[in-house]
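User: I'm writing a tutorial on reading structure tokens. Could you give me a worked example: one chain, its sequence, then its tokens, then a sentence or two explaining what the tokens reveal?
Assistant: Sure. Here is the example chain.
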Amino acid sequence: MPGNLDFAAAVAMIGTGRTALGILQFAEPGPDDVVVVPAAAGGIGTLLVQYAKNARATVIGLAGGPEKTARVRAEGADLAVDYSDPGWPAEVRAHLGGRAATIVYDGVAGTVAREAVALLGPGGRHLVFGWSAEGITEGRGHFADGVSESVLGPAMPQRAGGLRALELRALDEAARGRLRPAVTRFPLAQAAAAHRALEQRGTIGKVVLEP
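And here are its predicted structure tokens:
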């Protein structure tokens, strides 16, 4: 573990950081991209926002409520919008001024994802890595057919080094300050409170129990 990381940050990068880097291998952002990140205040979402900004992409972060949107803005998103506001897609379109999104990193599914995918232009990429808001069942797709050129569902890559290589890279990115994991800490004795906070969407980033 790099000496300048504490244990909670290292735990977040070994798990959430590894996953984020695995996702990014399927849709690497660049300066010409407009990236939409639903659940941008979550553990993975925070890292996707930071990585896309490091790549000089335009980043739109979606989160629930003013506290979380403020956090997304502080992480560098060009626009942070509250997805509980029904008018958020119009706010995004106004901000983009005619540009279309090129990548949607979708870990939530449901209505938010459908509205985010509708922002994609021709050739856009919709990368699905979770469906926390709505399970995917047969006949109940959560993406807009015909909008995106490719809908990607990544599996962790079986490349040289496997998962361990992703873990080491994630730790290195954090040690160098390029990626900063968001962590909500609870004492181990308050594990039940941590579960309640997760269920009530009252946490930001990765939840870590500390002994």
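What the tokens reveal: The first strand starts at residue 34 and ends at 37. Residues 137-142 have pLDDT under 50 and may be disordered.
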